[in-house]
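Appendix B. Chain record.
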Amino acid sequence: MAPCFRFLLALIASAFAFECQCSWAVEIPAPSPGASSPAASPITETFTPSPEFQQLITRLAREQLPDKYEKTKNWGKTTRVFDGWKLERDGLRLETRRRFKQANDGAWQKYSIELLDPENSFELRVANLRHREGQAVCDVTVVAAARIHGRHIQWENGVQLLSIGAVADARLQLRAELAVTPKLDVSKFPPDFSLEPRITQADLDILNFRIQRISHFGGPVVKSLSSSVREVLEDKIADSRPQLVERLNKSLAKQDSKLRFSASDWLTTLKGPPAEPTR
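Structure tokens predicted for this chain:
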């Protein structure tokens, strides 16, 4: 492995450990005898990111995954219906007038998406650490469980003709390539060190989808509801894709101050507390 890449890994690992007060283990496999040169084979690193780094990535993912999302169509729609007769007295004469009221009407549809226990159930994988043009690059994958609810109610002039519901569970996957560039601020002495993380590509998709519960009806109505529940999730995922990289980098930019380290403080920490004078 190239010495410059070893130094870059050690620098980033030490910096995160200093800032987060936690461990960042980097395992660099030793080259086997007779192995090809680094230029002829890809560099693969395996490492264990710190809990704070995992929390950062999890928080970024939560901001992009659909959660507490609701979509309705014609929900609450009403129409004006006849509501009987009203008698009015005009002197000795009685008059009748028709009365009207607003009543539920039409096909009501409501869908909701929520993440299941996002604080504890997220699966985070960081893999394929590699060197590219002075950057440390890795692939980040976050898998989350989501629950989707769907309900269709058919009304006609205030009379409920049908009410069916469905509950589905899905596993969503966010994949991203993270590139970290180390930088030095030479305007200070000793110079400050900073990390500039950027998402270079990202995608969001559905790993699996399963209907868990559905009302005890059959026929095309239930099939339509099942399809609609999945379509709502697919549409929400599709809407999130175009600006996904931009939104992730905006969230990362808010962490810039946390990824800047004072070299003097860092060196002091590495050296440990000053020795007590001997008497």
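Further analysis of this model is presented in Appendix C.
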